[in-house]
Amino acid sequence: MNLTFSLDELPEVARQFWAGFPKARVFALNGEMGAGKTTFIKALCAVKGVNGATASPTFSIINEYRFNDGREQEKIIYHLDLYRLKNLEEAVEAGVEDCLYHPSAVSFVEWPDVVTGILPADTVHVFLSVTPGHQRKLVAGLADPGEFSPSLQ
Q1: How wide is the angle at C-alpha 118 spanned by C-alphas 130 and 60, nearest 5°?
Q2: Nearest 5°: phi and psi at 128?
Q3: pLDDT digits (tens, 9 = 90+) for 79-111
Q4: 28 with 119: CB under 8 angstroms?
Q5: Which bin fits 30, alpha (ψ -120 to 50), beta or left (φ > 0)?
Q6: Residue 42 and residue 47: Cα distance in Å, rounded?
Q7: Contact by Cβ (8 Å): 138, 5
Q8: Alpha-carbon span 116 to 141, nearest angstrom
Q9: Beta 26-30 vs 105-110: how paired, if at all?
Q10: What is the reported pTM?
Q11: What are the backbone angles phi and psi of residue 98, rounded to the nearest 5°?
Q12: From CA 121, how far away is CA 45, in angstroms rounded?
């Protein structure tokens, strides 16, 4: 998936994203500070109908959101921000592994480098960047981050 969009187009981009990865459970979000990772996750949660506020878990490390899947079943979205973690041991102690391997939850991981070694093989790697025209560019795919870069189609 390769999309360029304005912030006004974010709700539609979020719908397209969910449609493009309907069965994916773990998403690793990469991008510089200010690229829009948290804003994108908020839009994805809004499309799913998450009740309540969504915010960056910079200090709590993990936020949990709930939504109804349309079949009257409550589902969980984990939003992880690993920016402050120094190593894998800290991530495991914080409960990151439990989120990544929860059988029925979706996990969005900001700053995933510290947990690259424990990400599921089917993790969707998402790259967000700001274009010179102040739009956002999103590139996403099912590939090892070492093999997949934002310049790929």
Answers
A1: 65
A2: -115, 140
A3: 999 999 999 999 999 999 999 999 989 999 999
A4: yes
A5: beta
A6: 9
A7: yes
A8: 15
A9: parallel
A10: 0.89
A11: -60, -40
A12: 23
